[in-house]
Amino acid sequence: MSTPKSKKKLTPTQEASDPSTSPERLAELAAQDIKLGRVVAKNSTTPPDILKTLGESDDKATRKSIAGNPNSPTDTLTRLATQFPEEVIQNPVFDLLLLENPNLLSEIPLASLRSLLKRQSIPIAFLSWAAKHEDVGVQLAVVLNPLTPAKAVKGLVMSPYPNVRAAAELHINYAEADDDFDWQRVFWERIGTDDLVQKEENIRPLLTLGLIDPRVFPELSEEIRRGVAQNPNTPADILVKLSTDEDSYVRWYVAQNPNTPVDVLVQLSSDKDSDVRGGVAENPNTPVDVLVKLSTDEDSYVRQAAVAVRRNVAQNPNTPVDVLVQLSTDKYYGVRGYVARNPNTPVDVLVQLSTDEDSDIRRGVAKNPNTPVDVLVQLSSDKDFYVRRYVAQNPNTPVDILVKLSSDKDSGVRRGVAQNPNTQWMY
């Protein structure tokens, strides 16, 4: 029996993202530097106590990852909801927490609750519940969410707070369906008086709906611009305007927004702020050539993010052939490995990858259902027994090669032959 191939030593970054890394090692890595802490914060197996500590980090990227980590403690999530409401709402554990504790919404800090209620991804039932809340800020958050149902809005018209009543009367689900109704004009008339308070809270929903002229953007607070920049429902033309904002947080949110146009992502990939470039590297719509450029960025966080996105592109079965061809020469073996496994990868690229010096890439080629017979014949003699195992399992492997592999010294190869649908023709 052959000696198992020794496991490759993981880099600190790989350890930080590996689900099998021990809690003690994760804590050690998180304490080393901010970049490793960001990776540990994304690891879904990181223990809650470590995530709680990282949730207090001064680093915004780390806190954002904690908000989306399903292993984060409840009190940490409710606190971070103020800064990262979308991540908390989209956290897979959020619905479970509500099932476990039906009173959770009433226990959430007011600042966090207000932030959550402003998101258009918040469940409608939450808005209906919050419409009965006694806090004026909560009521305003509900009435300024364009998705709040008409029944809840009509209830808020009777609110004891004048500013809430005024906002409710202007709600899209309350106003009469009149083509001549000039929402923007009426809004500015109202906000010009003092019967609407917390003006930042009032402006943001109208911005995301495109109801405010972009020329007023410079007059708006950083909080508003940041909130609009990170909203996945913000129209592309507004994101274009915000992409040149003087505030780096605004540009960072634009860089991550799935609605941001490609030409803006290209522009932001050269931003002076490394977090902004990192946001571009994490955006699923960033072109491959930009990701390749970012993989050589001077900042390690940007490089790692760019590589991670390229891996995702390489394994997507819907990725265009020309993109797969480009990624097949990527310097990172993990990217080439996913190209080798992709069922959309053209034959000539599989032939090229079949001679890659890294065994992980050759394994991917051996496993690919489109690998030609002559390549499978070549790989059937590969020194790596995992490559031979995948050849033994591949339905395209010819019978004479299966016969040869049935006597392989590795038991896994022999089992692969036994499982191959073509084995029946050997007897």
Distance between the termini: 26 Å
Mean pLDDT: 82
In one word, what is the shape? elongated
Q: Share of helix among residues?
A: 55-70%
Point out poorly predicted stretches.
Answer: 1-6, 176-181, 190-198
Please work out how many helical segments DSSP would assign.
31
Main sheet: strands, sense, barrel: none
Radius of gyration: 27 Å
Short descriptors:
mainly alpha, 427 residues, 31 helices
Write up this protein.
With 427 residues, the chain is mainly alpha-helical. Helix content is 59%, strand content 0%. It has 31 helices and no strands. The chain has helices spanning 12-17, 23-32, 34-42, 48-54, 60-68, 74-80, 85-90, 94-100, 104-107, 110-117, 124-130, 136-143, 150-156, 162-169, 183-191, 199-208, 222-230, 236-242, 248-256, 262-268, 274-282, 288-294, 300-315, 321-327, 333-341, 347-353, 359-367, 373-379, 385-393, 399-405, 411-419. Helix 22 runs antiparallel to helix 23 (300-315) and helix 27 (359-367) packs parallel to helix 29 (385-393). The protein is elongated, with a radius of gyration of 27 Å. The two termini are 26 Å apart.
